Fold this protein.
Amino acid sequence: MNTEKTYKKMIVKELKKLCKEKGLKISGTKVHLINRLMNPVKSDLPNRKTTKYTTISVGWGDERSPAIGQLINKGFAESLYYANDKFYYKIVSEKWVELLKKEKN
């Protein structure tokens, strides 16, 4: 699990990559990116006017996989495809933010 101290050691390019992997916006300064990773809220998700879903990717053995599986079972997510050693999912945005907040604790 990453901490604020770990994030501060990263360069902006690395922080943007992490944000993208978590389905968060990648715009803003280093401080904005760190805040977004530490305490995500719904407004941190990319603006999608026509949908309430976020597309995310996770690799083999990702610690979030069981939680994503539960979201799939409850109808809040669906598997999209597998490519480049990553699984891609479509998840209800609000549920994804909840999962990211739980991941922090």
About this structure: The chain is about 45% helix and 20% strand. The mean pLDDT is 86. The CA atoms of residues 66 and 72 lie 10 Å apart. The radius of gyration is 13 Å.
